[in-house]
Write a structure and sequence with these properties.
The protein is an all-alpha fold. Helix content is 67%, strand content 0%. It is built from 13 helices and no strands. Helix 1 runs antiparallel to helix 9 and helix 5 packs across helix 9. The longest helix has 29 residues. The chain is globular and about 55 Å long. The N terminus is likely disordered.
């Protein structure tokens, strides 16, 4: 089999819908620091999203704006534009949680400064001559985003089905933020992969950038959870360990270790396509009932 293009199945046609950004807003005044009652570890492990996503999704938008002129398929171009709008909104929504954390005595600035450096400097634009070198760096980042989006879609599908969070009394505003975001990740889960295949599709690049993205995500997530636990003003000697993660995953308040491990061969399969995973119908159903999304829709219709 050629190493340049993976032989991909046709996407599941019923899983594709037009994308739109929803101008949501959230009020955090009533959300406690430990928004999952009695479980600071799960709270802070999920809170790492608020540290990673603002800078990461701004980076997605920046890279995709550079890729837009290279797209030759009009439907894919529309999908990418919709993706850009949704990711920009995700970045803003998670960024707005950070002042609430500071007000509760947990300043994330030391960690977010490192994340900003990663995306803006290490993975940012480079001074490269026009032509092959500049295109290579763009394709590397497009492929890396496809790998990251595999995991954001995985997490989106998980949180839409994480009923244990409801049973344990998770703060409804935080849960709506997570599920609104998760539903949109499921909704647009194929866009990054389709863009990568459209511009390149090299399997070696897909595998290489997956390894980079997966390693970085695991490192950043465990580092972020430890940062939160060690700096939580209500905890004395707070720690985050893989044993804690395994216990929470078995309880259903975090994704299971087994499911995450099975996601690896799924993405690396030459027959993989994101439309095979998750349910667009479930995502759309949640967005039709989400307090934040329905309020955004009402405001948009009122403005119209």
């Amino acid at each position: 089999m050629s190493n340049t293009k993976a032989r991909l199945p046709q996407p599941v046609a019923s899983e594709h819908i037009p994308l739109k950004a929803r101008n949501v807003s959230f009020s955090w005044e009533k959300t406690p620091l430990h928004w999952l009652p009695g479980d600071p570890f799960t709270t802070h492990t999920i809170n790492v999203l608020h540290l990673l996503l603002p800078a990461g999704e701004r980076w997605f938008v920046h890279v995709y704006k550079q890729a837009l002129p290279l797209i030759r398929d009009e439907r894919l171009r529309a999908d990418v534009i919709g993706f850009i709008g949704q990711e920009a909104m995700h970045s803003q929504a998670h960024d707005e949680v950070l002042p609430h954390l500071r007000e509760q005595g947990l300043d994330p600035t030391p960690y977010t400064a490192q994340v900003d450096w990663l995306f803006e400097k290490l993975l940012g634009d480079r001074t490269l001559p026009p032509g092959r070198a500049r295109r290579w760096w763009l394709l590397e980042r497009v492929a890396m985003i496809a790998a990251i989006e595999h995991y954001t879609a995985f997490l989106g599908d998980w949180v839409l089905n994480a009923h244990e969070l409801d049973r344990r009394g998770a703060d409804p505003t935080m849960l709506d933020l997570l599920r609104w975001h998760g539903a949109e990740e499921v909704e647009h889960r194929s866009v990054a992969f389709d863009l990568f295949v459209h511009l390149d599709g090299c399997y070696r690049r897909r595998a290489r950038t997956w390894a980079t993205a997966f390693t970085a995500l695991v490192f950043l997530w465990q580092r972020g959870a430890r940062f939160f636990m060690e700096n939580d003003p209500t905890l004395r000697g707070g720690k985050a360990t893989f044993r804690d993660f395994h216990r929470s995953s078995r309880a259903g308040t975090l994704p299971s270790t087994g499911a995450m491990l099975r996601s690896i061969p799924t993405y690396l399969s030459r027959s993989y396509h994101p439309s095979q995973e998750g349910s667009t119908a479930q995502a759309v159903a949640y967005l039709a009932s989400s307090p934040a999304a329905t309020a955004a829709e009402a405001r948009a219709n009122g403005a119209a």
